[in-house]
Amino acid sequence: MLLAALVMASCNQKADSEGTNAETTEATTETPAVAYVFNEADWVETDLSTTKKEYPILVKLPKTAKIGLSEINPEDLTVTINEDTGLTVSTAFENTIEEALKRFKAQNTGGDSTKMLKEDENGFMYEELATEGFDAQYRFYVIVKAKGEGCYVIHNHATGAVAGTKEAAEKMYEAVRSSAKVK
């Protein structure tokens, strides 16, 4: 009987007291988003060109952020803040911040599912409203004019965009927006 139980266990089955087989099902639970708590003391000016020379950008990021090439597009950088919160740094072909803002606002906001929260001279923040089964998400874009042609785009991404609160998202947006510059 012990040998039969071991064999059945390896096949994800178990023997009940009568010796018949019953399939077991493993309980699966979703891992909840790891809420990001903004602490200004943890944010320091970071030189992105040390990861990719084509990005001569200085921007405040958490000391513990991991910066690397994007798995989706190796031309971009990914900044991992925690397992559910991060940033993407990419380029835009527009030659002015205004043109880039216009394009990214048109692509990402509008309609009944978004609400504009902030607009500045070099960025914007919006809320993707809660829908059935999903919490509201707070997203932002910050545009930095490149030397020469084009612009750099810094925007947040993640399961929860900023997994946490609107307040954390606003503070993160302001830290990135106010510090991002070409060196």
Describe the structure.
The chain has helices spanning 2-10, 97-108, 166-179; strands at residues 13-15, 21-23, 43-47, 57-62, 66-69, 77-82, 85-92, 114-120, 123-128, 137-145, 151-157, 181-182. The protein is α+β, with helices and mostly antiparallel strands. The longest helix is centred in the C-terminal third of the chain and has 14 residues, at 166-179.
Architecture blueprint of SSEs:
Elements: H1 2-10, E1 13-15, E2 21-23, E3 43-47, E4 57-62, E5 66-69, E6 77-82, E7 85-92, H2 97-108, E8 114-120, E9 123-128, E10 137-145, E11 151-157, H3 166-179, E12 181-182
Antiparallel strand pairs: 1-2, 3-4, 4-12, 5-6, 6-7, 7-11, 8-9, 9-10, 10-11
Q: Roughly how many Å is the radius of gyration?
A: 23 Å
Name the assembly state. Answer: single chain
Cross-sheet strand order for the largest sheet: 5-6-7-11-10-9-8
Count of separate DSSP helical elements: 3
Short characterization:
Helices cover about 20% and strands about 35% of the residues.
Descriptive terms for the model:
single chain; 183 residues; alpha+beta; three-stranded antiparallel beta sheet; 3 helices; 12 strands; disordered N terminus
